[in-house]
Amino acid sequence: MEVIPEAAETPAVAASRSTYRHLEYQGPGEIRWASFLLGPNGDSQKRYNRGAMAHEISGNLDGHGLRVGVIVSQFNEYLTARLLQGAKDALQQHGVSEENVSVVWVPGSLELAQAALRMARTGQWDALVTLGAVVKGETAHFEYVSAEAARGVADVARETGVPITFGVLTTYTIDQAMDRAGGKLGNRGRDVAEAAIKMATLFKELEAEQSGARSVPQEAK
After folding, report:
1. Which of 47, 48, 51, 203 has its CA 20 to 30 A from that of 170?
2. In sequence order, what E strands does the chain have?
3. pLDDT at residue 140, as a whole number
4. How far is 201 from 208, CA to CA, in rounded Å?
5. pLDDT digits over 30-83, tens only?
6. Cα separation of 161 and 159, whole Å?
7. What are the domain boundaries of the chain?
């Protein structure tokens, strides 16, 4: 395959070709796109375009120094205790010290948001994890509790700016809940604890970026 520079084609020749563009190489600080140009006779040529790599920010699973609050529903405790164990295992594995983990028990899933709001407002925790289990019964109560619990926790997170993850199982059967509380489908408590660490570290990265951005004009002065 021939590699050609940008200026090697006339407008007429370029118009007769179809271009397919894809990311071929990504190195430190830059990306390289390869454009494959297919001519009317099936011949192909390739050209390269370089551009600055987008600045990416993401959280990580380094929990050292983080303070995490875990709020657990006492309702269906035989399930939520398993979720709590999964969350504690994940936090410990990723470096969150035991003394920096606070476990708060509430009566049910509807009370998770109330406790989360009270805790988030104190500023004592870098992230909060909410755990519960709602299993469908014979009435519509299941739908109301599930929806309100999720909305309440999401509202608190948006209002306070504290990362809060939602680990409430909402299943049709007990077997389905057991599968997701340390059974064959993993442990939802572990999943949301890891998500909390990632969000807490992401927020710290964003704060550092904002501080750096603010310092630029000050230095310029």
Report:
1. 203
2. 2-3, 18-27, 30-38, 44-52, 68-73, 101-106, 127-135, 164-171, 181-183, 186-187
3. 79
4. 11
5. 445 455 555 555 555 545 455 556 788 999 999 999 999 999 999 999 999 999
6. 6
7. 2-52, 68-207
pLDDT score at 104: 98
Contact at 8 Å (CB) between 51 and 33?
A: yes
The one catalytic residue in 55, 64, 94, 141 is 141
Cβ-contact 104, 176 below 8 angstroms: no
Query: Is pLDDT at 84 greater than 50 in this prediction?
Result: yes
**Which helix (H) or strand (E) segment is 151 a member of?**
helix 141-160
One-letter amino acid for residue 104 of the chain: V
Whose tokens are 């309702």? That residue is 75
Tokens 């410990």 belong to: 92
- Residues near 204 by beta carbon (within 8 Å), at least 6 away in sequence: 126
Supply the DSSP symbol for 53.
P
Is 22 a catalytic site residue?
A: no
> Which phi and psi (to 5°) does residue 23 adopt?
-80, 120
Rounded distance between C-alpha atoms, residue 150 and residue 139, angstroms: 19
Q: Model-level pTM greater than 0.90?
A: no
What tokens appear for 72 in the block?
A: 């657990």
Rounded to 5 degrees, φ, ψ at 26 are: -130, 115
